[in-house]
Amino acid sequence: MNFRETLLITGGAGFIGSHTVRRFLRNPQTRVVNVDALTYAGNLENLVDVAHAPNYVFERVDITDAAAVARLFDQYRPDGVVHLAAESHVDRSIADPMAFVRTNVIGTVTLLNAAVAAWKADGFAGKRFYHISTDEVFGALCAEGFFTETTSYSPNSPYSASKAASDHFVRAYHETYGLPVVLSNCSNNYGSHHFPEKLIPLMIHNIVEKKPLPIYGDGQYTRDWLFVEDHATAIETVYRSGAPGETYCIGGWNEWTNLDLVHLLCAVMDEKLGRAAGESAQLITFVKDRPGHDKRYAIDASKIERELGWKPSVTFEEGLARTVDWYLNNPEWLANVTSGAYQQYYEKQYLP
Ligand code: NAD
Ligand code: TYD
Q1: Ligand 2 centroid to 196 CA: how many Å?
Q2: Are the CB atoms for 290 and 91 separated by under 8 Å?
Q3: Ligand 1: residues within 6 Å at CB?
Q4: DSSP string across 68-114
Q5: 120 near 176, Cβ under 8 Å?
Q6: What is the pLDDT of residues 238-282, one digit of tens each?
Q7: Distance from the first to the final alpha carbon of the chain
Q8: Alpha-carbon distance 160 to 74, whole Å?
Q9: What are phi and psi of 209, to 5 degrees?
Q10: Does CATH number 3.90.420.10 belong to domain 5-194+225-254+298-315+341-350?
Q11: Which of 29, 36, 149, 154 has a CA that sits 20 to 30 A from residue 44's CA?
């Protein structure tokens, strides 16, 4: 079959990656090669609905494996890379920073090298390397102000330091080798298929199970939440229309303190689970704070709206309700990812 373009999407079996893969697959002329090592966070069950699409291919490859990455460029001759593969959890980065250096820094540079090697002979004509990054590279805000594309980098966690380093490498490859790159820095995402180590899915899981809801410190830390399907639309928009060498900040204009957010989630779930109002909130438990905990993140997303015409379309009320419904309707997904059974699922479904 002839396709108009081929994209390597890295990290496509993860949370945002699976929504991004699904988004690009909507175009039957686009062939998507999902490149994922299937770490604890990668789960092919996230993509069962599209696994047999004629324009979808899965490759289990670790992005730090230079020979395997070169083979992908050789075999698929991609027009673009949409790079999401990463170690993504701040708490894990505090426990094991080197895993973050390995995938986020070395893995990104391995991909950049392969892209330059494969594409430079044609002068990079029609090619694009897109790095998906986080607002956490900018550090922490106080009560006022927003991150913009010109905010200086000031990462505070090993996770954000590794993402900052990879952003810098991506920019450097644009300046030094002329690689046509584009970047985006997005705020906290929420939605279906989110690994239950992150705040919202962990709280949903614990509310269902009537387990304690651990709030770090005083719970007055603020995050700007964006529905993951809106992020996937933004990624497609930036890939298609972003200017080479440019960065776009993506956010939901939707700030919540952790404590207020967990109270809201408890109220939504009490109603859905038929519990008395206030029952789940009794599970809230204040625990030791995260070291180096960033006080507040908030994105000014006016550049992407002004220049590319993207803005969030799903309200927090609707997005949260859809997210809770998805988790309540898919208890086996939660059971599988928390038990590690999805690795066996992969062996059964995909290995010869
Ligand atoms: P995730 O942890 O859910 O998924 C990461 C994916 O990368 C997994 O499928 C995993 O198997 C894969 N992976 C990890 N190491 C790999 C390696 N060495 N080789 C190949 N694949 C590997 O992450 P996510 O939350 O979906 O985040 C995706 C990207 O978006 C990351 O780059 C992250 O920094 C960025 N981001 C995330 C958020 C958020 O709120 N989750 C916000 C802004 C930016
Ligand atoms: P998280 O989902 O880990 O995302 P990030 O640290 O990348 O923003 O955490 C979101 C916020 O919730 C952050 O301020 C830490 C806090 N948090 C808790 O209070 N309790 C928890 O159990 C978790 C996982 C996070």
Answers
A1: 11
A2: yes
A3: 10-11, 13-17, 36-39, 41-42, 62-64, 84-88, 103, 107, 132, 134, 163, 186, 188-189, 195
A4: HHHHHHHHH--SEEEE------HHHHHH-HHHHIIIIIIIHHHHHHH
A5: no
A6: 999 999 999 999 999 999 999 999 999 999 999 999 999 999 999
A7: 24
A8: 32
A9: -80, -5
A10: no
A11: 29
**CB-CB contact of 133 with 162 (8 Å):** no
What is the spatial distance between Cα 336 and Cα 321, in angstroms, rounded to a whole number? 22
Q: Whose CA is nearest to atom 20 of ligand 2?
A: 215
C-beta atoms surrounding 247 within 10 Å? 22
Residue 59 designated active-site: no
Q: Domain locations in the chain?
A: 5-194+225-254+298-315+341-350
HEC letters along 156-203: CCHHHHHHHHHHHHHHHHHHHHCCCEEEEEECEEECCCCCCCCHHHHH
pLDDT digits (tens, 9 = 90+) for 129-160: 999 999 999 999 999 999 999 999 999 999 99
Give the position of tokens 């905010």.
151
Q: Which of 56, 130, 159, 342 is catalytic?
A: 159
202 lines ligand 2 (CB under 6 A): yes
Strand pairing category for 222-227 and 255-257: antiparallel
Q: Side chain identity at 64, as an amino acid letter?
A: T
> Is the separation of the CB atoms in 24 and 236 below 8 Å?
yes
